[in-house]
């Protein structure tokens, strides 16, 4: 067993201070006393000082981290925090898109721009469990997707995206999506109307009607534009989803169609029958069918008004013919379409979209004879 050696340290009661040396009164308090401490006391003092400096440094780091965290959240709320997000990590299930699923003829221009100078304006996404929900930038996402499929270039497998902070209301996310397209002025009235209708039908929005949906989603739009959106929503309902390219409808054409269909129920049936025969493909054929329908409908109405005016003039000239001037109008569905009939004293008119001049004469005679034979039964 080793023996601990003990040392006695004796401090002189009086210390002779050489001339020119600082005395205890000339030095900071405790300096002379510190000079008399042992190695252990000095080590403890130095360790305590190091711990104090470290605590101050850690406190400064925590304060800086808090500041950076708040700044990150602030920028994230503004959509200014940008990351490169994998295309397959982006989903579109939370929001009903305000873009038609039909082919976009201008998408090639966007793709060319991206290939040439890159994406100038990142899309906006919200972080959700398992990925990201697209809020703004459906066309940009579509362009990246097509470029990746066409080229296989991994540069297009990820897209720059601004990360929105969690917690935004569903209505707020819809407003972000809608307002961007309102500013860019490249979304049709039919697409906005369809979005309002989908918003109304979505149980998560708790929207009570179309008017509320339009007012909520398009609060940034002018009053007249909101009226047009509601009118187009009515048009989409009246056509029962038969329009294949509603986004291609010009405003004036859509409003004219709505007016006709509201005023004449038979016209609605006739239009739906026409739309069912329009060949699939591009929007041109559908737009032509709609314009032809309006032109022919107005021509018929003009003839009817002229006939009514002539009948009225004859009635004024011969009051005894008022009763004889009564007329009956009806519509009848036949395999070839809807026949509009107008019967008067001594006259009957039948109108349908068919060229009767191409029908053989004997067939017309047979049809007329059958018609009058049916009347005599």
UniProtKB/TrEMBL annotation:
Domain ParB-like N-terminal span(s) in chain numbering: 83-182
- Tell me the Pfam families matching this sequence: ParB_N
What processes in GO biological process is this protein linked to? chromosome segregation
Q: What is this protein called?
A: ParB/RepB/Spo0J family partition protein
InterPro entries referenced in this protein's UniProt entry, alphabetically: Chromosome_partition/occlusion, ParB/Sulfiredoxin_sf, ParB_N, RepB_N
The region called Disordered is annotated at 1-40
Tell me where on the tree of life, at the top rank, the source sits: Bacteria
> PANTHER family attached here?
CHROMOSOME-PARTITIONING PROTEIN PARB-RELATED
What's one GO-annotated cellular component? Answer: chromosome
Which Gene3D superfamilies does its entry note? Conserved hypothetical protein from pyrococcus furiosus pfu- 392566-001, ParB domain
């Amino acid at each position: 067993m080793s023996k601990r050696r003990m040392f006695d340290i004796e401090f002189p009661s009086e210390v002779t201070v050489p001339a020119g040396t600082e005395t205890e009164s000339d030095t900071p308090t405790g300096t002379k006393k510190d000079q008399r401490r042992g190695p252990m006391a000095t080590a403890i003092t130095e360790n305590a000082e190091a711990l104090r400096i470290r605590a101050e440094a850690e406190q400064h780091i925590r304060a800086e981290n808090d500041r950076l965290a708040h700044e990150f959240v602030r920028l994230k709320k503004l959509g200014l925090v940008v990351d490169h997000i994998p295309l397959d990590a982006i989903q579109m299930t939370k929001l009903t898109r305000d873009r038609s699923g039909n082919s976009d003829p201008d998408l090639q221009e966007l793709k060319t721009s991206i290939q040439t100078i890159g994406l100038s304006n990142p899309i906006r996404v919200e972080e959700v469990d398992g990925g990201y929900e697209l809020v703004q930038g459906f066309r940009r996402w579509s362009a990246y997707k097509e470029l990746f499929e066409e080229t296989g270039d991994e540069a297009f497998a990820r897209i720059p995206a601004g990360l929105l902070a969690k917690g935004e209301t569903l209505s707020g996310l819809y407003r972000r999506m809608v307002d961007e397209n309102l500013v860019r002025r490249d979304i049709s009235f039919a697409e906005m109307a369809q979005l309002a209708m989908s918003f109304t039908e979505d149980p998560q929005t708790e929207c009570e009607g179309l008017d509320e949906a339009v007012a909520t989603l398009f609060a940034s739009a002018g009053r007249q534009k909101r009226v047009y959106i509601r009118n187009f929503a009515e048009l989409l309902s009246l056509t029962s989803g038969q329009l294949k390219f509603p986004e291609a409808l010009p405003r004036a054409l859509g409003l004219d169609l709505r007016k006709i269909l509201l005023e004449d129920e038979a016209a609605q049936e006739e239009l739906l029958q026409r739309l069912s025969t329009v060949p699939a493909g591009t929007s041109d054929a559908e737009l032509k069918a709609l314009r032809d329908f309006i032109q022919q409908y107005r021509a018929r109405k003009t003839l009817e008004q002229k006939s009514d005016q002539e009948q009225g003039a004859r009635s004024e000239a011969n009051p005894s013919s008022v009763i004889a001037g009564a007329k009956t109008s009806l519509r009848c569905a036949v395999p070839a379409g809807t026949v509009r009939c107008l019967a008067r004293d001594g006259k009957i008119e039948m109108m349908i979209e068919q060229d009767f001049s191409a029908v053989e004469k004997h067939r017309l005679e047979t049809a007329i004879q059958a018609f009058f034979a049916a009347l005599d039964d």
